[in-house]
Specification:
The complex is a heterodimer of chains A (about 1100) and B (about 400). In chain A, about 55% of the residues lie in helices and about 10% in strands. Chain A is built from 44 helices and 15 strands. In chain A, the strands form 3 sheets. In chain A, strands 10, 11, 12, 13, 14 and 15 form a 6-stranded antiparallel β-sheet that branches. In chain A, strands 1-2-3-7-5 form a 5-stranded antiparallel β-sheet, with no helix packed on it. The N terminus of chain A is likely disordered. Chain B is α+β, with helices and mostly antiparallel strands and about 400 residues long. In chain B, the strands form 6 sheets. In chain B, strands 2-1-5-4-3 form a 5-stranded antiparallel β-sheet, with helices on both faces. In chain B, strands 8-9-13-11 form a 4-stranded antiparallel β-sheet, with no helix packed on it. In chain B, strands 14-15-20-17 form a 4-stranded antiparallel β-sheet, with no helix packed on it. Chain B is globular and about 70 Å long. The two termini of chain B are about 40 Å apart. The relative contact order of chain B is 0.10. Classes of the chains: A alpha+beta (about 1100), B alpha+beta (about 400). At the A-B interface, helix 1, helix 3, helix 5, helix 7 and helix 9 of A face strand 2, strand 4, helix 2, helix 3 and helix 4 of B.
């Protein structure tokens, strides 16, 4: 039975459209019994053990659902199979469940546990589908379960599951809007996701749940812009629409200056003088020519680099095959781009006109709106809007609309010729629309008014009444503009009243005759006579015009028409329509002089025969652009539910720094290692190809932020992420190099200052060393990066704004990457510098030198250790001399972007801070990257933990543009790693900044002999001793590198030691002078033991971590 | 987003419904039927309708209406484009998108719809991904399935959906690796009475059929890419590469797909391959008219013109036509007043001609103007735009 009957059933279903399908079931007899029986046998099949039977049953049930039959009575039998092993049965059960769960809430709950189990499945696809079905079951009781599942899935490792979570958010929201706050949290989290898979879905969720929370977008704005091209098509549409709204709130109007002009010309447009329209045309053209110089004179508008980023990244999507994407980009450009750039969208929109007729319909509506504002944009494509005889009428009418909007003096003759062909069309609605279009062209373009009018008058003799009627209406409007010239046309039209039956046309003729009765004094009373005769049979609109005509004639020619008027008014008095009765009463009082009549009747003539302004024939699409183009609301010209108003441009730009993304954590020293760790782990969870976890995407993100070219490359090549990474590295090096070259130049400037002369020379020498090294490494991927550089420089030449943003992006990346990549280089130098410091006499000066790079030392490593050995008894020597002051790591305090050109870096100079020995010296380097000077740099509003103290740096009065200045401040951190927060003030702005010391900087080196060390160590046992076993990094298995790494991590000095298997270091904390003793004992094969003895256990533990990291990586 | 979908046939029966959110009664379609009545011609039904609580967005394809119900603001093109994608998918699966085919495969169609949208938002629309989840029916498989009770739901889980290239499924293997590209060009021209070109443009499309193993990365370059006035691509094409080098670089989907559409601007003179001599006249006296049409080759570059067909929408007054063609045959549909003359191959030696008389409705006024002629034709192996032929195709990394 099973297989065959189902087969029959499906076939049967196809042949019988509307009939009940039971007839084809072999088991069926009468309708009622069959219904019952049929479901009965389905139940039996579902209860059987065979999967094939179950499958057949489910197929039949789903087919019934598809046809809209009710199968809800099978619910219990179906839900039992939710845990069925057969995947197709399972899928069909899901389909059934989602359809009927709402109706059978209690029974649906039985299935929940299956999905909950599915949520924990190791296979990401099963997790995703479980979440998908669970969230689709519209049962209110499970809201908390859904909430939990969504939250969990939002932090799932698989981006696909996260995408499903994003999809589930609007489902839950529609089920229970009270969950909004919690859902917003999830959305916020998912918005930060960096995979393309999630981006579209989460923005969709954002739009449905909390479109008003525009603030959630700030931090993700740039990322979304950069990811956009790789998001799937549907997501692109949603993201672009959302970003359009976002950009309207955050950026300034790029046409600010032009819009003033536009308004000016608009005024002339409405003016009564007909020729002004042309002037406006010319004016506009002149404007275009004069734009460039004029713009310069006006207040300069500088486009926000983020605004530019959006425009640049959406442009390639105009080439998408998906009409919705193209339209989305087009509306974005229309609403956001500077006037000069909007043109690019025209070609793409015209392309869409070759698509399906529904697409054409929507696109033409939007083109019609656009063509009113930006006529020039579509002019080159005029012929693409020509009408084909095969177009459906609705498309034809829209094309006419566009053609009319595009008409101007230069092309009007071609358009009119085209219109002439249209008038002959057999599609009468279309002909009527064409006549109106001609009328509009005639009103807008003075030169062709007479030609049009003549053409229309000819149409009056057309056999088709509709055509004639439409022509009359249009002629009436045209005549109003210059009636004196055309009394013969009016006469001609008066004759038409005998034939034309279309009410609107009759009304128009009557109005014309009444209005210009002075031009046709003989005919007018006669027309009224005829009309009075047929008054009772006329339509309301005609009756009103007859009354009007009568009144006007009474005022101008009362002799002939007095009786007629009385007659008409009497007829009107008893009309069924109250409008007509009212009008009659009103007019009678006004025009017929009685003893009671007031002052008004004196003015009756003025009232009725006042000069009336000519009508402006407007496009129905005028001003539709206040709706976001491409939206449903725009199409309907009415606000659709859930439509988000497109906000007006802000007067002043909101703070652009909100979009600045924090410099990724891993640039900081300590967390850099963490990142490395993550990388090692990576293969662990990214074994499946597509699963690009957050770590990986973090890399690709920064990359795509740097240059969208390579960004798109990554996503598409799929496998190339590693090569990409290396490329990325090389790129950053290169830029770093560039930066250094800049620095060099700056430093060369500084050379003029005598004090720093020697130092800066030294440093520039160092730069060269760096350069050489980085060059070597670069060479591998040079070709690629060269290419990139070229293209970048190209684009920067082309547009200044462009380059600005590019530079900014570069900078961001640099901030993110220069440190990790340059670090090894620095380390190499460190050795040398440490030795240099031995001879660095400057260090004895109380005031720390601004540039801590020491001078002239070419001692070999071995010599250095020898010297160290020599100094063992020399306790008089200042501890500072040993400190590896040149290996200072600088930290960023204020980024150039946040600081609006001012960037501040700080480092711990490891010099004693002379004003207060308990303070740690912090050396700050201020660089002014802005174009204007910065004045009065000082600090304010210091917020500290109790016990901490700060000695402020002296105010810097002037920091000229492009210059760099250093200053030193002291902070007593009280032996804690709490940050010191304060405000950095310039003459214009304040920045909140903070300084947080690594634990290694909270100490100063001291000298101990081996014996002293052992003695002290002996006293700091037990709780004060921390021991860790470790495996040394391959590169740091010798003594020197160990020493070097430890002294970099912490400000300690080496203690001489007899055994070469042990390195010892000693120091005291700055504030409390507690001893810190470090021992590194090396063993075979890189194994080592790290022991730290410290009175302060907290410091000890933190120090262990830092030194461990320094030694193991 | 999209709330529900109804499939409606030409005569107004709803034969499939699918709801992605809660169920909406089919009575919502009544508004559509009303509009359909009013529009007379199915092409003139407005694609977007407003009802008190819902908005209806409809497409008309292959004599079927795909009617979607939405409740809130959504870009109309988004829905229209999606509905067309649904129709494309059905066509791709079953070779045809007609009522009978859909009814025969109602379960598969239903499952497809289920996968394509999640809560009304598109989830998987790439046919490669869908085919991995729901296998398209073949004759062999349906026989096997009937016998063994097997299924056409893929038992492997789709991986394409997870990757950054959703259009290609993983692990494709072919013994013969092959790739075919078809260049199809269409001239779209409007001629006036005297035969002068009013407007002409060339549209081209490159259809590809790629059967390559692994993850091939293809590049395709053109002889003269400058000719392209405007292009649109399948999402697999790298935009940046095109913008900078005018080279198509892509990882192709498996199987058939449209690689790109292009447009050659009308500034370049388009040679129309045939000429038409026509005279259609109606006489004031006596209810009749005369028709005489001859078609001849103009610039065919030595190729044969095939599938030549002339369609004329006659004025309403024309009752019947009594014509004799020298080649092919003609039909005149009384209801729609459409005269179709199917000529077939154009023989340059003996030009096809259609002549005869038309009879008009008695008493009806003489039609004012002559009807317009639509001429369709095909020429094999000729790219009208001339140069945009592919010259180089490189394949990298077939086996990955």
């Amino acid at each position: 039975m099973s297989a065959n009957s189902a087969f029959n059933d499906e076939k049967g279903g196809s042949s019988s459209v509307g009939e009940p399908e039971y007839g084809h079931d072999p088991a069926s007899g009468g309708i009622f019994s069959s219904d019952y029986k049929r479901h009965d046998d389905l139940k039996e099949m579902l209860d059987s053990n065979k999967d094939s039977l179950k499958l057949e049953a489910m197929k039949r049930i789903v087919a019934m659902i598809a046809r809209g039959k009710n199968t809800s009575d099978l619910f219990p039998a179906v839900v039992k199979n939710v845990a069925c092993k057969n995947i197709e049965v399972k899928k069909l059960v899901y389909v059934y469940l989602v359809r009927y769960a709402e109706e059978q809430q209690d029974l649906a709950l039985l299935s929940i546990s299956t999905f909950q189990r599915g949520l924990k499945d190791p296979n990401q696809l099963i997790r995703a589908s479980a979440l998908r079905v669970l969230s689709s079951i519209r049962v209110t009781i499970i809201v908390p379960i859904m909430m939990l599942a969504i939250k969990e899935a939002a932090s799932d490792m698989s981006p696909y599951v996260r995408k499903t979570a994003a999809h589930a958010i609007p489902k839950l929201y529609s089920l229970d809007p009270e969950q909004k706050d919690q859902l917003i949290e999830v959305i916020e989290k998912l918005l930060a996701d960096k995979t393309t898979l999630v981006a579209g879905s989460v923005v969709m969720a954002f739009e449905e749940v909390c479109p008003e929370r525009i603030d959630l977008i700030h931090k993700n704005y740039r990322k979304l812009c950069n990811l956009l091209i790789d998001v799937e098509e549907w997501g692109q549409v949603v993201i672009i629409n959302m970003l359009t709204r976002y950009a309207r709130t955050q950026f300034l109007n790029p046409n600010m200056n032009e819009s003033l002009l536009e308004e000016g010309s608009d005024k002339t447009f409405y003016g009564s003088d007909e020729d002004e329209e042309e002037e406006e045309e010319e004016e506009e053209e002149k404007d275009k020519k004069a734009e460039a110089p004029a713009m310069a004179k006006r207040k300069p508008y500088v486009m926000d680099p983020d605004h530019r980023l959006l425009l640049r990244n959406t442009k390639p999507l105009l080439q998408s095959r998906n009409a919705a994407v193209v339209m989305a980009v087009a509306q974005l450009y229309f609403h956001l781009a500077p006037k000069a750039e909007v043109g690019v969208i025209a070609k793409a929109l015209v392309r869409l006109l070759r698509s399906h007729s529904e697409v054409q319909y929507v696109v033409l509506q939007n083109v019609a709106t656009m063509s009113i504002k930006r006529r020039g944009m579509f002019e080159p494509y005029l012929k693409s809007f020509y009408i084909r005889s095969t177009d459906p009428t609705q498309i034809k009418v829209l094309k006419l609309e566009v053609l009319t909007n595009l008409a101007n003096e230069t092309n009007i003759s071609t358009i009119l010729r085209e219109f002439q062909t249209y008038i002959k069309s057999m599609d009468k609605d279309f002909v009527a629309a064409t006549i109106q279009a001609i009328g509009r062209c005639a009103t807008n373009i003075g030169e062709v008014r007479d030609t049009c009018l003549n053409g229309l008058v000819q149409l009056l003799s057309n056999r088709d009444e509709l055509v004639v009627a439409e022509s009359v209406v249009v002629i009436k409007k045209l005549l109003q503009m210059q009636p004196e010239k055309h009394s013969d046309i009016i006469k001609h039209m008066a004759k038409l009243t005998d034939n034309i039956q279309v009410p609107m046309a009759r009304a128009s003729i009557l109005w014309l005759i009444g209005e210009y009765c002075e031009h046709v004094p003989k005919i007018a009373p006669d027309v009224l006579r005829k009309m009075a005769k047929s008054f009772t049979n006329e339509e309301d609109i005609v009756k009103l015009q007859i009354i009007n005509l009568a009144a006007k004639l009474y005022l101008t020619n009362s002799k002939q028409t007095k009786l007629l008027t009385q007659y008409v008014l009497n007829l009107a008095k008893y009309d069924q329509n109250y409008d007509i009765r009212d009008r009659a009463r009103f007019i009678r009082q006004l025009i017929v002089p009685t003893e009671k009549s007031g002052a008004l009747s004196k003015y009756a003539k003025k009232l009725f025969l006042a000069l009336k302004p000519a009508p402006v024939l407007e496009s129905p699409f005028k001003d539709r652009d206040h709706f976001q183009l491409g939206s449903l609301s725009h199409l309907l010209n009415a606000k659709a539910g859930g439509y988000q108003e497109l906000p007006d441009w802000p007067e002043a730009a909101p703070d652009p720094s909100v979009r600045n993304v924090e410099v990724p954590e891993w640039t900081k020293c300590s967390s850099r290692e963490k990142r490395k760790e993550k990388k090692v782990e990576k293969p662990f969870y990214s074994d499946s190809e597509g699963e690009s976890g957050p770590t990986e995407s973090a890399d690709s993100e920064s990359d795509s932020a740097s240059s969208s070219e390579s960004g798109s490359g990554i996503e598409e090549s799929g496998s190339g992420s590693e090569s990409e990474e290396s490329e990325e590295g090389s790129e950053s090096e290169e830029e770093e190099e560039e930066e250094k070259e800049k620095d060099k130049k700056k430093k060369k400037k500084e050379l003029k200052k005598p004090v720093q002369e020697s130092e800066s020379e030294q440093s520039s020498e160092e730069e060269r060393k760096h350069e050489r090294k980085s060059k070597q490494r670069k060479s591998e991927s040079e070709s690629e990066s060269d290419e990139e550089e070229e293209s970048e420089s190209e684009s920067s030449q082309s547009e200044s704004e462009d380059s600005e943003s590019e530079a900014e992006v570069k900078k961001k990346k640099k901030a993110a990457e220069s440190k990790p990549s340059s670090k090894p280089v620095k380390k190499d130098n460190k050795k040398e510098k440490k030795e240099m410091s031995l001879l660095d006499l400057d260090d004895f000066e109380p005031a720390p030198s601004p540039q801590a790079t020491p001078v002239n030392a070419f001692l070999s490593n071995s010599l250095a250790t020898d010297l160290e050995g020599l100094s063992l008894s020399d306790a008089v020597l200042s501890p500072a001399t040993i400190s590896p002051s040149s290996a200072l790591k600088s930290y960023e305090m204020l980024h150039r972007i946040t600081g609006e050109g001012l960037s501040v870096e700080y480092c711990f100079s490891r010099q004693p801070f002379s004003p207060d020995a308990n303070m740690v010296a912090v050396q700050m380097q201020f660089t002014n990257n802005a174009t204007s000077d910065t004045k009065n740099l000082h600090m304010e509003d210091v917020k500290l933990q109790s016990g901490m103290r700060v000695k402020e740096f002296p105010e810097i009065e002037l920091l000229p543009a492009g210059e760099m200045v250093t200053a030193v401040m002291g902070i007593d951190f009280c032996d804690s790693t709490q940050a010191a927060n304060f405000q950095l003030c310039t003459h214009t702005r304040k920045f909140f900044v903070s300084i947080q010391p690594p634990v290694g900087e909270l100490m100063r080196p001291i000298f101990l002999t081996e014996n002293e060390f052992k003695k002290e160590q002996g006293q700091l046992m037990g709780m004060n001793e921390i021991t860790e076993k470790l495996t040394l990094d391959v590169k740091c298995r010798n003594e020197h590198s160990i020493v070097q790494r430890v002294t970099t991590a912490a400000n300690l000095s080496r203690v001489p030691c007899g055994s070469d298997k042990e390195c010892r270091f000693a120091g005291r904390t700055v504030t409390s002078s507690s001893l810190v003793l470090v021992t590194v004992a090396t063993k075979e094969e890189g194994a080592a033991k790290l022991t730290i003895n410290c009175e302060k256990m907290v410091i000890g533990t933190m120090l262990v971590k830092d030194i461990l990291l320094a030694l193991t990586q | 987003m999209i709330h529900s979908l109804f499939l409606i046939n030409h005569s107004g029966d709803i034969f499939l419904e699918k709801h992605w959110k809660s169920v909406i009664s089919r009575s919502v379609c009544d508004y559509f039927f009303e509009a359909k009545e009013k529009a007379v011609d199915p092409e003139n039904v407005p694609p977007v309708l407003q009802t008190p609580h819902h908005y209806l967005i409809t497409i008309y394809r292959d004599k079927l209406f795909f009617l979607s119900v939405i409740q809130t603001e959504v870009p109309p093109l988004f829905v229209i484009e999606f509905l067309h994608r649904v129709a494309d998918t059905i066509q791709d699966y079953f070779g045809d998108c007609s009522e009978s085919v859909i009814k025969d495969n109602v379960v598969t169609v239903y499952e497809l719809l289920e996968e394509m949208l999640d809560n009304g938002f598109p989830l998987a629309t790439e046919s490669n991904v869908l085919k991995e989840m729901i296998r398209p029916p073949t004759i062999l498989r349906s026989v096997v399935n009937t016998l063994t009770g097997g299924s056409n739901v893929g038992d492997t889980l789709p991986t394409g959906q997870l990757s950054n290239i959703p259009w290609r499924r993983a692990g494709v293997k072919y013994t013969n690796n092959e790739a075919y590209f078809d260049v199809i060009e269409e001239i779209d021209a409007i001629l006036d009475k005297s035969g002068t070109t009013v407007f002409a443009e060339i549209q081209g499309v490159i259809e590809a059929c790629v059967r390559l193993s692994g993850m091939p990365d293809l590049t395709l370059s053109f002889m003269n890419p400058r000719l392209f006035d405007d292009v649109s691509f399948h999402p697999c094409v790298r935009f940046k590469r095109w913008e900078s080098e005018r080279i198509l670089s892509f990882i192709p989907p498996d199987g058939n797909f449209t690689l790109m559409n292009y447009h050659v601007s009308s500034q370049n003179l388009v040679a129309i391959p045939v000429y038409v001599k026509q005279s259609i006249s109606f006489f004031e006296m006596g209810p009749c008219g005369r028709l005489d049409i001859t078609i001849g080759p103009k610039q065919t570059m030595g190729k044969t013109v095939e599938a030549l067909m002339v369609t004329i929408h006659m004025p309403k007054a024309v009752l019947s036509a009594n014509l004799t063609p020298t080649q092919g045959n003609y039909t005149y549909d009384l209801a729609t007043k459409v005269l179709v003359w199917d000529i077939g191959k154009l023989n340059p030696q003996k030009l096809p001609n259609l002549r005869g008389s038309l009879s008009l409705q008695a008493g009806a006024p003489k039609p004012e103007d002559n009807p317009s002629l639509n001429i369709d034709l095909k020429i094999q192996q000729l790219a009208i735009s001339g140069t945009p032929c592919m010259v180089a195709l490189t394949v990298e990394r077939i086996f990955s």
